[in-house]
Design a protein that fits this description.
By secondary structure, the protein is mainly alpha-helical. It has two domains: 65 residues; 42 residues. It has three helices and no strands. α2 crosses α3. The longest helix is centred in the middle third of the chain and has 54 residues.
Length: 124
């Protein structure tokens, strides 16, 4: 094989103006326009994704802040519930010591009501 076929003569290269067909320039222009349109679409998609990511991060931040505030409010409202049984026992004890007869009558009435409710339930 002869090395002259691989010369660097510009007229021998494909796609050069010297050997190009008449429609090659238009085809190259169309390819350039298509390439530019492709990259414009890629840039637009990238920009849209960045905006969507930003909106999603803001939404997550708002949800996190709202959940944190809700937890704080619930903790504040339920802070005294742990000692509630102790408070109820102390209150009941002091009430029975201050008014023993009334406490006994209330206990008897409550027992009677519970007994009646249970007997009605068994009768069905």
């Amino acid at each position: 094989m002869d090395n002259s076929t691989f010369s660097h003569n510009p007229s021998m290269r494909s796609g050069s103006a010297a050997t190009a067909s008449p429609g090659a320039a238009e085809q190259a222009a169309e390819q350039t326009a298509a390439s530019m349109a492709h990259w414009a679409a890629v840039d637009s998609a990238r920009h849209s994704l960045q905006r969507a990511r930003h909106v999603a991060h803001e939404a997550v931040d708002r949800l996190t802040t709202g959940a944190s505030d809700l937890v704080d409010r619930l903790e504040n409202k339920t802070a005294g519930w742990g000692d509630m049984p102790q408070k109820a026992w102390s209150y009941s004890r002091s009430t029975v010591q201050d008014r023993p007869v009334q406490s006994l009558l209330v206990a008897l009435a409550a027992g009677y009501v519970v007994a009646r409710l249970l007997s009605l339930r068994r009768g069905r």
